[in-house]
């Protein structure tokens, strides 16, 4: 797995009450600690610190040319691909953990615990703190509890068979380019994160039958599978009973094929945070939006511009999850759109899919099989029946987006009370090929050609 660095701040804080060393740890000169710790705030290490406000900027000393990814309390925040690396963190009062990861000659991962003033733990002593010492105090000799060892890296080209959730988590952590993780039939409950990266010549594969089922155990929280590494192949398995199904963050060149994703609280599959060049094919997406119908998209590509600041770090930086291909899937019973293509995305394809009862709730205008707000998408040879209004829609939510999309060879069988293709005003360059249609209002509200 290469270099793997992990903070022992969790162990130090956990034993602080018994050892009485928190004050000593925090009294170490910030410059001395920062010299060996790459995760800092305003020049001082983040580990074990108490931040005065709920918003601060984390700086990371990582080599140029990598992608530094950030998670707060297990939730993916985003990434920075340009040195010097920094990320704005906003959170509530109390105890938190920030995870920072990049890959350069191996994997580098750091977990840093800190508190935010307001409901932080009380001080260990009520006496006035002593002046900061000029030399570090002698640490208490009592050793912290030994951490659970990380799984050894899996040799390239090796197949690892797993049958329990714990084995799956270990295999995901230990995966290297060329690894295949083979799931036995059964139910795997927990948080599963695919953070390692494969290569073009040696992708990482996670495979199982439809009877190999990933779940968080609840439609109200969590991701059935969270992919943050590049070049994964996810084949055959099922994801169900989770807040979201499969979520990709900063994960390029992923292939998802032959899977079944359904019975989720919100969206089933989400390509997010510059997850470009991905493929979803030959899969079944169904029964989505069971807890929050207005967020019940079958396939979601990109991020709404209202989320760019949170996801990308700036309200003017689009989520460029570009060139995603959605091919030959069956998408049915989604409360929101069967496929939602967000502004900021370019050059993808939606080909050969079959829709049934997708976009049926009508909540927040969730009323079509496909809603396109990106540019240069190709939508062809899809078919289906039943939705709330139109089969396909094009919208402009941000100036410059919703343009140059091409529709051809699509078929409406029944149950579409609006147009086959409805194009909103303000967009340009969209084309609709002529042909018969089963939509009640006709082929399109713009001239076909």
Runs in which pLDDT lies below 50 for 5 or more consecutive residues are 1-35, 119-139
Strand order of the largest sheet: 10-11-14-17-20-23-26-29-32-35-38
Q: State the helicity in percent bands.
A: under 10%
Strand content: 35-45%
**Mean pLDDT value:** 85
Structural class by secondary-structure content: mainly beta
Biggest sheet overview: 11 strands, parallel
Total beta-strand segments: 38
Q: What is the molecular shape? A: globular
The termini sit apart by 55 Å
How many helical elements? 6
Using only C-alpha atoms, the radius of gyration works out to: 24 Å
Description:
The protein is mainly β and 449 residues long. It contains six helices and 38 strands. The strands form five sheets. Strands 10-11-14-17-20-23-26-29-32-35-38 form an eleven-stranded parallel β-sheet, with helices on one face. A nine-stranded parallel β-sheet has the order 12-15-18-21-24-27-30-33-36, with no helix packed on it. Strands 13-16-19-22-25-28-31-34-37 form a nine-stranded parallel β-sheet. The chain is globular. The chain starts with 8 loop residues before the first helix and ends in a 17-residue tail after the last strand. The model is unreliable at 1-35 and 119-139 (pLDDT under 50).
């Amino acid at each position: 797995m290469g270099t793997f660095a992990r903070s022992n701040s969790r162990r130090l804080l956990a034993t602080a009450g018994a050892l009485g060393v928190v004050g000593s740890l925090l009294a170490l000169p910030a410059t001395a600690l920062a010299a060996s710790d790459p995760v800092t705030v305003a020049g001082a290490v983040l580990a074990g610190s108490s931040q005065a406000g709920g918003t601060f900027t984390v700086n990371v000393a990582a080599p140029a040319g990598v992608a530094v990814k950030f998670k707060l309390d297990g939730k993916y925040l985003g990434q920075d691909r340009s040195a010097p690396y920094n990320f704005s963190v906003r959170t509530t009062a109390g105890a938190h953990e920030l995870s920072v990861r990049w890959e350069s000659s191996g994997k580098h991962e750091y977990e840093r615990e800190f508190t935010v003033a307001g409901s932080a733990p009380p001080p260990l002593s009520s006496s006035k703190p002593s002046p900061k010492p000029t030399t570090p105090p002698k640490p208490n000799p009592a050793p912290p509890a030994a951490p659970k060892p990380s799984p050894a890296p899996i040799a390239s080209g090796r197949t690892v068979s797993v049958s329990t959730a714990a084995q799956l988590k270990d295999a995901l952590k230990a995966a290297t380019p060329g690894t295949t993780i083979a799931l036995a039939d059964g139910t795997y409950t927990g948080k599963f994160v695919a953070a390692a990266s494969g290569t073009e010549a040696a992708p990482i594969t996670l495979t199982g039958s439809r009877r190999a089922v990933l779940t968080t155990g609840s439609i109200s929280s969590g991701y059935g599978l969270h992919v943050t590494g590049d070049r994964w192949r996810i084949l055959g398995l099922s994801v169900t009973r989770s807040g979201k199904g499969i979520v990709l963050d900063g994960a390029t060149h992923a292939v998802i094929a032959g899977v079944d994703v359904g019975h989720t609280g919100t969206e089933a599959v989400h390509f997010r945070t510059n997850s470009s060049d991905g493929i979803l094919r030959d899969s079944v997406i169904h029964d989505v939006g069971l807890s929050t119908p207005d967020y019940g998209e079958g396939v979601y590509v990109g991020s709404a511009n209202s989320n760019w600041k949170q996801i990308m770090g700036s309200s003017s930086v689009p989520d460029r999850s570009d060139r995603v291909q959605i091919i030959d899937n069956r998408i049915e019973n989604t409360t929101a759109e069967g496929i939602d293509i967000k502004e900021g995305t370019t050059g993808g394809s939606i080909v050969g899919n079959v829709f049934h009862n997708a976009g049926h709730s009508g909540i927040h205008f969730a009323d079509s099989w496909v809603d396109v707000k990106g540019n240069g998408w190709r939508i062809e040879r899809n078919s289906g029946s039943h939705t709330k209004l139109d089969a396909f829609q094009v919208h402009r939510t941000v100036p410059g987006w919703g343009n140059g999309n091409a529709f051809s060879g699509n078929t409406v069988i029944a149950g579409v009370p609006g147009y086959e293709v409805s194009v909103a005003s303000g967009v340009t360059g969209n084309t609709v090929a002529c042909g018969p249609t089963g939509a009640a209002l006709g082929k399109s509200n713009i001239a076909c050609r």
